[in-house]
């Protein structure tokens, strides 16, 4: 028996276009997942800055000059940003901070000269890309510096169009320009410390511009928008530019009554996590308690949730009474005992807002506005002054609140709030469903429903994903159908609904959906695999094999296609070829349980028993509660006449839920082989109680003369 894989997942791969290479998309998502857990693209390797030692190699002086940041740096562009005659650097990073300005403030008496070339637009492009500049001194013509104007510098960077030459003691300078369209110009009597604009064919040099003349290079200062003030350095936490509804948390109040954060709708509330053993927490609550009257006068409150004994980073065991601890701290605002799922919901919230995944630490606080939306997050103690300021900010205009969301003073190139808000909130709601909170997911969907009561196809699709993930299949079917009704060519909704129908054995309905997906996109990988599944179920093996090989040609890193093809080939006993495809599929996705099981089964069918046993044990390690690898291992042990071990394996499989006719029959046969005839016969009879026509059990009992007993 091979295990037919659920090649059509109930939830299609998010972010995977039908014709995209799933392996690439999966790997990219895995990479982003690692970054969200605090990992680094570059392994926190520090940046290097190399000093040219004039023919004696290079030395890394990054640490000496203080630029050896452990950023995920990617691109570097040079420019004399502050117009002081030396080059500064802009560095772009893959992760925050995404841009750094490294200003060259080294004291030097050396000179410089800079040139901006303008092509004639006929034989040479206006940016003079490809032009070669050679700078020398008349008195020492053999000493030359050469620069070439490029379209791009290094990786994803473009430095200033000003060509910069660093000089020592410089005088009697001469510049030779070889234009890319042909022709050479030579300019003499140039002065150090100047910037020149040179136009091709005009034979003249513009008036020299001094280093202090900002108009010569058109540079702009990094300036804040009008009236913006630099943030105070002691400001803590971050403001949420695109607010999302705060999850519904439940706690037990001091009187033992279950309360919800929804009870506080209509007023701002600071939801605070604290513990009796946490000194910073108690200091924070003491300060908030001292300002309780002022807090109430502002129409706001605090809900302090005690997390003693819950799974929080840095948690310590304690027997302190939270009520007494709060009384000693002078805190008389609302509080309660948190529940473990409170922490999980908050971790999901913070992960969505920050794209970082980590366990909660304490103290942590979230400011929720009167509408129930998340306004600010504090991952450290929040002072009263900060809270007071942020409560006032809640009443300010969007322009002011955007400044609070900025890490520093400046101007936004693009407003971060200009997003598809419905999709953004829909993804937020889906995240709760995919992490085991279907009720919260549906509650959030209800909150973000447009006022007119209509949802987009994507919003229906997101809800369907959430419902399917939680096993609410009838609801998922209805939601997928609504998505398809709005957008009949929504490929993911078609394959998602088809996957549910296929698992429900509604073959004809599933086939129609997959064929429609392929009519929209002939290379739709998920639909092709599912159609191959249907063909295999109907005995159309050659067609299924051809279709799966086509998927592999289109998507050579799609593990699902390899494992499915291996299964089909194994089912027709073409084990050698089946093993090759299964091994490739497992190489691409070692965590595929069904793939590992089928590969172990195929090894066994070819007599490769050691490899088969190793495969079953890998599945046990991946999922200790799965019964099938124990059943398969028992079969191997029985083949090798190790019936004592086989009995133990079969009993383990039964204890994990595989109490079926096949396992009970195998157990009975091994017991009889060990001489335990009575328990063996009992096991065989139990098999017939489950399936009265199970042939192996009937035949064994007949051979033992116990069939009619």
Provide a brief overview of the structure.
The protein is α+β, with helices and mostly antiparallel strands and 709 residues long.
Fold and architecture overview:
The protein is an alpha+beta fold and 709 residues long. Among the domains are: 111-216, Immunoglobulin-like; 243-405, Glutaredoxin (3-Layer(aba) Sandwich), CATH 3.40.30. It is 42% helix and 15% strand. It contains 25 helices and 21 strands. A hairpin with a 5-residue loop joins strand 20 and strand 21 (374-378). Mean pLDDT is 85; it is low at 1-21 and 209-234.
Number of DSSP helical runs: 25
Radius of gyration from the CA trace? 35 Å
Class by alpha and beta content: alpha+beta
Q: According to CATH, what is the topology of the domain at 243-405?
A: Glutaredoxin
CATH class of the domain at 243-405: Alpha Beta
For the biggest sheet, the summary is: 6 strands, mixed
CATH architecture of the domain at 243-405: 3-Layer(aba) Sandwich
Strand order of the largest sheet: 14-21-20-17-18-19
Overall strand count: 21
- Helix percentage: 40-55%
| Anisotropy-based shape | extended
CATH superfamily of the domain at 243-405: Glutaredoxin
Low-confidence stretches: 1-21, 209-234
Q: Which percent band covers the strand fraction? A: 5-15%
Q: Mean of residue pLDDT?
A: 85
Q: Alpha-carbon distance between the termini?
A: 30 Å
